[in-house]
Every structure is written in structure tokens, then in C-alpha cells.
Design brief:
By secondary structure, this protein is of the alpha+beta class. It folds into four domains: 129 residues, N Utilization Substance Protein A, Chain:P, domain 4 (2-Layer Sandwich); 66 residues, Beta Barrel (OB fold (Dihydrolipoamide Acetyltransferase, E2P)); 76 residues, GMP Synthetase, Chain A, domain 3; 64 residues, K homology (KH) domain (GMP Synthetase, Chain A, domain 3, 2-Layer Sandwich). It has twelve helices and 15 strands. The chain is elongated. It starts with a helix and ends with a helix. The model has no long low-confidence stretch (mean pLDDT 88).
Length: 353
């Protein structure tokens, strides 16, 4: 049966949307066979022959030639088979053409619907593939709506056929940051999940990975691998501690991140709406690393526990509150950065011992 409209529609979809004709034709064939089986109880084997050159589709019901028919939907007698062609014998499979009128009715009823559904699935798959390849990267989105009840922000990410909507949950927004509709913001792509309504793009403004990617964009030495970010601890909107290391002894890792006159780090602080960033030098020596992590406080001594990742840090009496930080933030971030439990004591405590 001639199916010019279906072939023309598939060609247009491939040209304008980049959706494979083969993908869509497979969907149509699947729908046509399912529809025929639904209307003909007992029929199991239905095939559709696709002739792209002639733009034709032909449907056949396959039946096995048997001595005694038990299931008319899947079997036919030897006499009936011989009536079609003398070549058939018991055990052969006969392709019985479906009447063009009936096939046309099935195609008309299902073709358009399948194309629409297949289009949705294909576009959904393309969006999933596009964003799945960008996991743990920075994306720029435009705020399209803010839910006054929950504070969740809807964002439009990407352009053209690859554009998609993403939800920035209130818990993934930086504390104290006010978003407005139409605002362009950078977000971190945490994950992409397949869902029945299409892929769900999970984004964040609080993830430590956002800081890491911003530094990669801003600092050439990090992008080319000369300087490495070894660890990040972040309390979004307030403070971040970041440990860096240089693979080239001639390159100062902290200086590279700060930039001339602080330009590089200031650019990132501005993007993060004033979030403070402490950059320290990573060390393979745990004591040295822990002491650096407690900056800006000076450290007198670091005593590592004999077992487990724990330590006691001695600081000058007048720097105890600086080492602990407001509401314990400096000590908390330092502990997360180095992966050690840190017990901070003043020098006078050591003298008492």
C-alpha cells in the first residue's frame, strides 16, 4: 500500500528535528502490528514489509503449515497452503497479505498518533543524551518562574531543540540569594533522570562542584591540569574552603587561583554573590594540611591520633575563636576539607597538661 504521507512526514522530521527515519518507522511498524493483533484474536505473527524506494508498506500474517489446525490464528492446513502455492509443505511458514483496505484503516488510525508519540520520545531521548553528557558541568539558565509558595525556581536551559526546563529547588538555592524572573544564572548539573514525562534535569547552586567548575573556567592553570583542586568544602552563600596543588614547582597554585590583583577569585566571588573563598595549599603531610586548612588562624601544633582520622590542634590563646570561627564554621569546613575530626585547644591547655 502506498504511504507517501507517512514517508514524507518522517523525512521532514529527520531534516528539521534530526530524528532518525529508521527510529520512527520502527515505532510505526510496532504500532501497526500491535493494532492488528488487537483486532484479530489468536493472531501472533504479524510482519510489516517496508519498501522505502517505492514508499510502500505491506502487512502479512505468518502462519505455519500443519497437518491438523489447532490454532487458526497461527496455523493453516496443508490444503489451504497448497491453494496459495504448490511449493508449500508441512512445517513451512506462509505469508498471507493483509487486505489493503483493512491495512489502510489501521495505518490511518495509528500512523499519526505514533508519529506524535515517537516524536515526543525521540526528542526526550535527545534531550536526555544531550544533558547526560553534561553531568557535573556548569550550565546557564534563565529564570522563567518562581513558585511563591515553595520558593522553587523554574529555569529554561539551552536553546533550540536541545532546550529543556529544569527545577532549581529552594534547598539547592544559595541562602540569602534573591532570584527574579528573566535573570540569567549559572547552575551545576548534578544529575539527569529518565521519567515518564521526559528527562528530569537536577541542578544546584549550592553544590561544591559549582565552585570547582567556576575556577576551571576562570583559571587557565586549572583547566590545563597544571594546578589541581584536591578538595572543596562549602557552605553555600557563606564560605568555601578549597585545597589546591601545583604539578609545576614554578607555578604557585594559590597565586594562580587568586589572579593578578585578585581578579580571578573576585570574579567567582561576584558570581556567588559575595561568598567568601579561602584557598589553601594541599599537602601530603596531614599535619601540614590540617594547619593550612584552619587559616586564617595560626597553628602551633598538630597531634594526630594513633588510630583513625582524628587530631588535636593547638592554637595561640588569642586565636582560639578565629580558629573555631563564627558558629564553628571555620573548624567545621576545615574538618570536611581534610577529612579529619579536629579538636582545637588553646596553648594554655597544653601548658596545663
Amino acid at each position: 500500500m502506498k504511504c507517501d504521507e507517512i514517508f514524507a512526514a518522517l523525512a521532514m522530521l529527520e531534516k528539521e528535528r534530526g530524528i532518525s527515519q529508521t527510529f520512527m518507522m520502527d515505532k510505526i511498524v510496532q504500532a501497526l502490528t500491535t493494532a492488528y493483533k488487537r483486532d484479530h484474536e489468536g493472531v501472533e505473527n504479524v510482519v510489516v514489509d517496508v519498501d522505502e524506494g517505492k514508499r510502500e508498506l505491506k502487512m502479512f500474517v505468518q502462519k505455519e503449515v500443519v497437518d491438523e489446525v489447532e490454532n487458526p490464528g497461527t496455523q493453516m492446513s496443508l490444503d489451504d497452503a497448497k491453494a496459495i502455492s504448490a511449493k508449500y509443505n508441512v512445517g513451512d511458514i506462509v505469508n498471507i497479505p493483509v487486505d489493503n483496505i483493512e491495512f489502510g484503516r489501521i495505518a490511518a488510525g495509528n500512523g499519526k498518533q505514533v508519529i506524535i508519540q515517537g516524536l515526543r520520545e525521540a526528542e526526550s531521548g535527545m534531550v536526555y543524551d544531550e544533558y547526560n553528557s553534561k553531568q557535573h558541568e556548569i550550565l546557564t539558565g534563565v529564570v522563567t518562574r518562581i513558585d511563591p509558595r515553595t520558593g522553587n525556581a523554574s529555569l529554561r536551559i539551552g536553546t533550540g531543540t536541545e532546550a529543556t526546563d529544569a527545577l532549581l529547588l529552594a534547598g539547592e538555592q544559595v541562602k540569602g540569594e534573591t532570584l527574579v524572573e528573566g535573570q540569567r544564572i549559572k547552575v551545576y548539573l548534578v544529575d539527569v533522570r529518565r521519567q515518564s514525562r521526559g528527562p528530569q534535569v537536577v541542578i544546584s547552586r549550592t553544590h561544591p562542584g559549582l565552585v570547582k567548575r567556576l575556577f576551571e573556567l576562570e583559571v587557565p592553570e586549572i583547566y590545563d591540569g597544571t594546578v589541581e583542586i584536591r578538595s572543596i568544602a562549602r557552605e553555600a552563600g557563606s564560605r568555601t574552603k578549597m585545597a589546591v596543588w601545583s604539578n609545576d614547582e614554578n607555578v604557585d597554585p594559590i597565586g594562580a587561583c587568586v589572579g593578578p590583583h585578585g581578579q580571578r577569585v573576585n570574579s567567582i566571588v561576584e558570581e556567588l554573590r559575595g561568598e567568601k573563598i579561602d584557598i589553601i595549599k594541599y599537602s601530603d603531610d596531614p599535619a601540614e594540611y590540617i594547619a593550612a586548612a584552619l587559616a586564617p588562624a595560626d597553628v602551633v601544633d598538630v597531634r594526630l591520633a594513633e588510630e583513625g582520622k582524628a587530631c588535636r590542634v593547638i592554637v595561640p590563646d588569642d586565636q582560639l575563636s578565629l580558629a573555631i570561627g563564627k558558629e564553628g564554621q571555620n573548624a567545621r569546613l576545615a574538618a570536611r576539607l581534610v577529612g579529619y575530626k579536629i579538636d582545637i585547644k588553646p596553648e594554655s591547655y597544653r601548658e596545663e597538661e
